[in-house]
Amino acid sequence: MKQRLSFFNQEDLPEEFNNSVKRKEKVVLISQGHHSSLVWYPTKKQEIFYIPYLTQYSNLTYGVRIIQQQGNLEPQQLDFEITIQGINNQDGIYCYHIDRKQVYINNNIPDTTVEELASMCGEVLYPVLIDFFDYTIKNSKQIKERWDTLKKKIYNSFQGEYVEKYITATEKVIQNEVILNRALKQDMFLALFTHIAETRAYDKNLTAEVLFNFPIIPFTTPIRYVGEQSVQKQYTPYNTIQVTYKGKITDDRGVAELRNKKRFSTQTSTEKIMPKGNCNLQYDLDRKTGMLKFCTAEITIDLDGDLRSNIITINELQS
User: Fold this and answer.
1) Is the pLDDT of residue 24 over 50?
2) Contact of 69 with 75, CB cutoff 8 Å
3) Rounded mean pLDDT of 106-132?
């Protein structure tokens, strides 16, 4: 069972918890199903602190903007809304139910053939059910059924060799659960969301060395960044917990391997050219629940002069 470990200011806690602190006991927040509960056990160490993560409040809607830049090319801006809800699926497995609405490209609805095909094939994934514990897809059958319906619609709307290639490539992903789950890791919003959900433990200075995997290069294993993540020691004026992260690329794949979409490093030469890049995140969490309220992210990679960057903004939308 996955554990979500938490810390609160003392004023936020029930009296029995305050007593446990006096007895030098550690508090652990267990999230299971649609509820969470506080439990504690004796410990002599008081150096580890945790951010709350109360998943029964994960019925949220976010506005997302992604600006992608490569070299001197015109930047591409994507805007969409995404909803996340914690539910139990038909097998009783606790999941995130995630749905994405219309994607706008540079403030417009997709209108070219390529844009429309990409949008239609991308939307087949949603709504998606993701296991709360291992982030694997739990409604692949429904996704396949949606694809069968959508494929007929595409054939009725588009023609040509390019369309056939697009359908073949998409079907290869849809029909194989391993590849389908791998494709899910290419979702930039979910890469940020899962990082924020999982990174909860800090030392006495409210800092931690953190690994962050981000798909800044498509169609390959996400790039590995490592850096320091820290929590602001005071709540913000908006009654949120503010977290910052500054990381650098530590991926062991060279530039040539990444350009060739290699999922793992196979080069042993010490002379291979390595990528450079940074990842800077700042996000706010709800003081009581620990759920995401706001996030800004700037992630870069330099492939020996080929500079790419993603700037992402996520805002919780009030219903």
Assistant:
1) no
2) yes
3) 88
Task: Give the model's confidence band at 50: pLDDT under 50 very low, under 70 low, under 90 confident, else very high.
Answer: low
φ/ψ bin of 276: left (φ > 0), alpha (ψ from -120 to 50), beta (otherwise): beta
Scanning 185-226, the segments in alpha helix (DSSP H) are: 188-198
pTM: 0.83
CA distances to 31, 34, 85, 96, 315 from 132, in Å: 10, 11, 11, 6, 22
Q: Indicate the length of the chain as a whole number.
A: 319
Q: What is the mean predicted confidence (pLDDT) over 266-287?
A: 89
* Residues 167 and 219 occupy one common structural domain: no
As a whole number of angstroms, the distance between CA 305 and CA 300 comes to 12
Q: Which of 149, 184, 219 is the last residue of a domain?
A: 184
Nearest of 85, 87, 65, 68 to residue 76 by alpha carbon: 68
Please give the Cα distance from 230 to 10 (Å, whole number).
20
Q: Are residue 223 and residue 295 in the same domain, yes or no?
A: yes
Give the domain range for residue 292.
10-56+189-316
Which SS3 state, helix, strand or coil, does residue 85 take? strand
The token pair that represents 265 in the structure block:
């490093």
Identity of the amino acid at 204: K
SS3 of residue 106 by DSSP: coil
Question: How many domains does one find in the chain?
Answer: 2
Query: Residue 317 is inside which H or E element, if any?
Result: none
- What does the pLDDT look like over 181-222, one tens digit per residue? 999 999 999 999 999 988 877 877 888 899 999 999 998 999
Q: What is the pLDDT of residue 1?
A: 32
